[in-house]
Amino acid sequence: MKLAPLALALAAFPFAAPALAQDDLSQKRDGNVVARAASPDGGITVTVSIDGEGRASYAVQRAGKPLLADSRLGFLFTDAPKLDRNMALVEVKRDKADTSWTQPFGEWTTIRDNHNEMTVRLREKADLAREMDVTFRIFDDGVGFRYTLPSQPNLKHANIADELTEFAFAEPGTAWWKPAYLWNREEYLYNKTPLDAVGTAQTVMTVKLAGGTHVALHEAALVDYSAMNLQRAEGNTFKASLTPGAGAPKVSRDAGFSTPWRTIAIADDAAGLYAASRMTLNLNAPNKLGDVSWIRPGKFVGVWWNMIKGEWTWSRGAKHGATTAHVKQYIDFAAANHIPGVLVEGWNIGWDGNWFGNGNEMQFDRPTEDVDAAELARYAKAKGVYLIGHNETGGSASHYDSQLDRAFKYAQDHGIPVVKTGYVTDAGQIERVDPDGAQHREWHESQWMVNHHLRVVETAAKYHVSIDSHEPVKDTGLRRTWPNWVAREGGRGMEYNAWEGGKNPPEHEANMVFTQLLGGPMDFTPGVLSLSGSNGSAIQSTIAKQLALYVVLYSPVVMAADTPENYAKYPREMKFIRDVPTDWSDTRVLNGEVGDYATIVRKARGGDDWFLGAVGDEQARSSVVTLDFLDAGKTYVAEIYRDGPGADYRTEARHAITIESRPVKKGDTLTIALAPGGGEAIRFVAPAAKARRR
């Protein structure tokens, strides 16, 4: 299949940019419009309207065409009338920014923040006369908006039952979404349905409208608030649905606060959405931790895959995985392959018995008797390797709260710079215990859990420990504010491929790139070169695709998930895993369609090498990419790992791989041929460049 050339990015739109609308509303076309603002390039316009009943709404236009029709604004409260009717405009304030900032690590070294801002103050004309602000930041590739509820005589405290916020798409389309409020938290495959057939969806939800425009709905800067889901109201209109808490209000806060940003990323195509997702980072506050040179991006191996497959156990006994001897074997393997980290799961007291949904026996500073923690810390340091801890709570979040300081002091004392956390329990079953002893059950993304995760991240930072959270609250760009929150899981990762039933289909990763990963990095745990799960069950992938995932699925901490014994069988393929970095100075999506294919190139931070990853779905696919990202005047060596003859995820030929090298330069083209379930990985070695290994 030949892929069509990509459309131009939004930034290249050729129409003239109108001047920013003035408060006199001389440009208004609708008698209900009370405020208008445009993006810096003029391509996106936001209008705010008030109808005859005093209901406020917003709308979004792109290139002069409706994208979101009038969409409702407001709040429902548990103890006060809703904030909705009889509103009037008080004032409109405007601002703009065009700045750049540097990430300590990430997909891009420098990120530009270029937006126009409009804040609309609304007030009830009678009764309680309450006020609310709605602030819009309009970028060339999207819109973010949030509410502010000032402290005022008739609104000192807000007990929010829900938001009235809507997203009313102006035309039909196709949506990629996964369900909210079901038992298995975030770990569902993405559905592909007509927009008007969506149920209640988690964000990120990605939409391809009938006219071709791509939109991704999400949120940014989720702090002290409940996470937002999307409930289809009618037709193509969606309403914000806040995650419940243990009490009646979904959010309870003293007035004088702002909500998270609701984000609308907009692009011509799926590839454009990836760059547009930087808006999420721009809408977060700058780094609050100061010097973060202690944060260590990098790859790791671990005592993990054998447990996932059922061959070792987390609990003590004859098959216990986290023994001193086993961990030393992994340390030796990591050191020999220049892999800096070794994850150890099941090392601590509490894993014996039924811990699922009940982690009250977990002790996060007490290893089991067959784990010599001091010796492993010494041995790892001597080998130039660090350990990665694992704190599984079994959903007992309050129990974990009570141990945070000593858990991270233990990590610091044993040379553990990263801790993987876990909250394995059914949705709605997080255990919360109040200071008075009252017990409650929380959802994973309730306001209380949002605040719990920040307590974890902030306490970890005191001890120079980074957090890789599993069963987490979703990523909303907070890694900008708290850079030690390096990664999250929050989706179906590699572990599903270990089990005989319900493996991830070949399209899964091409879905994730343009849906969940628009929110932030995921600890997916790729690199299972054996392509084998429990009882030898086949993973629906080729070897080349496993290598490509290191480039396609970004995370600053990345696992080589297979076992040392299996990696010993693939020394040539293992070279790519050794060479590929986890920290980048530039990222570009060369092509892609949601759920079908994606080709991404990234430049190694601190070096001149580029790396390409391409993944497909169940179909054989072919595309031609131009190497315009390379430096002019240099000849690179392309080290290519591609699907071999007859490669196919459905047969034993999934192991077929061709490894070759060829000289390339800027402007050359390469044909990327993907087998069914296949992929391709390339390292472009710059002349005289030294290998940079993470």
Walk me through the structure.
- With 694 residues, the chain is α+β, with helices and mostly antiparallel strands.
- The protein folds into 3 domains: 10-282, Beta-galactosidase, Chain A, domain 5, CATH 2.70.98; 286-490, TIM Barrel; 494-545 and 573-694, TIM Barrel.
- The protein has 12 helices and 38 strands.
- The strands form 7 sheets. Strands 6, 7, 8, 9, 12, 13, 15, 16, 20 and 21 form a 10-stranded antiparallel sheet that branches. The protein has an 8-stranded antiparallel sheet with strand order 1-2-3-4-11-18-17-14, with no helix packed on it.
- Strand 7 and strand 8 form a beta hairpin.
- Helix 4 (324-336) runs parallel beside helix 5.
- The chain starts with 32 loop residues before the first strand and ends in a 9-residue tail after the last strand.
- Mean pLDDT is 95; it is low at 1-29.
Attribute tags:
disordered N terminus; single chain; globular; alpha+beta; 694 residues; 12 helices; TIM Barrel; 10-stranded antiparallel sheet
CATH architecture label of the largest domain: Distorted Sandwich
Describe the biggest sheet?
A: 10 strands, antiparallel
In DSSP terms, counting alpha (H) and pi (I) runs of 4 or more, how many helices?
12
* CATH uppermost class of the largest domain: Mainly Beta
Determine the structural class based on helices, strands and strand pairing: alpha+beta
Strand tally, please? Answer: 38
Total individual domains = 3
Query: How large is the share of residues in beta strands?
Result: 25-35%
Mean of residue pLDDT? Answer: 95
